[in-house]
Write a structure and sequence with these properties.
By secondary structure, this protein is an alpha+beta fold. The protein folds into 2 domains: about 80 residues, Glutaredoxin (3-Layer(aba) Sandwich); about 140 residues, Glutathione S-transferase Yfyf (Class Pi), Chain A, domain 2, CATH 1.20.1050. It is about 55% helix and about 5% strand. The chain has 10 helices and 4 strands. It has a 4-stranded mixed sheet, covered by helices on one side. A hairpin with a 2-residue loop joins strand 3 and strand 4. Helix 4 runs antiparallel to helix 7 and helix 4 runs parallel beside helix 8. The model has no long low-confidence stretch (mean pLDDT about 95). Bound molecules: glutathione. Glutathione (GSH) binds next to helix 1 and helix 3. Glutathione binds next to helix 1 and helix 3.
C-alpha cells in the first residue's frame, strides 16, 4: 500500500502525484498542511526529520526526495515506463531532473513565500506560529519562515531576483526543447514530470507571460497539459495557496 504525505499545492508533491497518475498506481493521501506549517509537527517530523514534503510510505517503509520517489515508482511496475531505455537518454533525463532540483524548484521558493504563503501565515495565531517555527530542523529554516511570516510588505527584491533566474531557466529550456520533443529527449519521461510543476507555479504567480516569446517552451507546455496525469496531479481550487494579490 502506498501512502503519500503531501500538500496539495506544493511543487515536489505535484511532481510525485503526476508520476503516480501516469503510472496508474493507487495511493492514499496523508495531507500535510504547509499553510499551517504542519510539516513541523512532531508527528510529521517522525516521518521525515527534514520537515519536507513529500514522503512516500510503501507498506510502512519511508522514502523521501521526490526524484528518488519517482524513480522508485517507475520501477514498481514495468507498465507505462517513464525512464528511457537507452543509457544516453536516461542520462539526459537525469540531467533535466537535476535541473529541476537545482534551478527550477529553488527559483520559485522566494515568490511562493513572499507573495503566496505569507498571506496564509498571517492567518495563523502567533502562538501556533512560534510553536511550529520552534520545531524547524535548522536555524536557517526557522529564520526563513520567521521572515516569511513577519508583518509588513513582501520582499520584492527577492521576488525580482527569482524572476531573473526563472527567465534564464526558461531560456535554457527553450534551447533544449527547440532540439527535441521532450526535456529528456524524444519520449515523455520523469524529466518532464519534474519540470511540470514549474509551469503550474508560474501560472499561479501570474508570471505565465514569461514564456510568451518562447515557442518551444509553449509547445512543450501544451504537450505536458495534454498528458492524462497532469490534471489529476493538480490541486482543486480549494486546495490552493491563496493567489498573490
Ligand atoms: N529535495 C526535496 C525538496 C522538498 C521540498 O523542499 N518540499 C517543499 C514543498 S515543494 C516543502 O516541504 N516545503 C516546506 C518547508 O520548506 O518547510 C524533494 O525533492 O523532495
Amino acid at each position: 500500500m502506498l501512502e503519500l504525505y503531501h500538500d496539495w499545492d506544493a511543487f515536489c508533491c505535484i511532481k510525485v502525484r503526476f508520476c503516480l497518475a501516469e503510472k496508474k498506481l493507487a495511493w492514499t493521501s496523508r495531507w500535510v498542511d504547509l499553510q499551517n506549517m504542519a510539516q513541523l509537527t512532531p508527528a510529521y517530523l517522525a516521518v521525515n526529520p527534514k520537515g519536507l514534503v513529500p514522503a512516500l510510505l510503501d507498506d510502512g517503509k519511508v522514502l523521501t526526495e521526490s526524484s528518488v520517489i519517482n524513480e522508485y515508482l517507475d520501477e514498481l511496475s514495468p507498465e507505462y515506463p517513464l525512464v528511457p531505455e537507452a543509457p544516453l537518454d536516461r542520462a539526459h533525463m537525469r540531467i533535466w531532473v537535476k535541473f529541476q532540483e537545482d534551478v527550477l524548484h529553488p527559483s520559485v521558493k522566494a515568490p511562493t513565500y513572499q507573495l503566496m504563503l505569507r498571506r496564509a501565515f498571517a492567518l495563523m495565531s502567533p502562538a501556533l506560529l512560534e510553536e511550529r517555527i520552534a520545531q524547524a530542523p535548522t536555524p536557517e529554516k526557522a529564520a526563513m519562515l520567521r521572515k516569511a511570516a513577519a508583518a509588513g510588505t513582501p520582499d520584492l527584491g527577492e521576488v525580482e531576483a527569482a524572476q531573473t533566474k526563472m527567465q534564464a531557466a526558461l531560456g535554457q529550456m527553450e534551447a533544449r526543447l527547440a532540439q527535441c520533443q521532450w526535456l529528456g529527449g524524444e519520449t515523455f519521461s520523469l524529466a518532464d514530470i519534474a519540470a511540470a510543476p514549474f509551469i503550474d507555479r508560474l501560472e499561479e504567480l501570474k508570471f505565465a507571460g514569461m514564456w510568451n516569446n518562447k515557442p518551444a517552451v509553449r509547445r512543450w507546455i501544451s504537450q505536458v497539459k495534454a498528458r492524462p496525469g497532469y490534471a489529476a496531479a493538480l490541486p482543486e481550487a480549494t486546495q490552493r495557496i491563496p493567489e498573490p494579490i
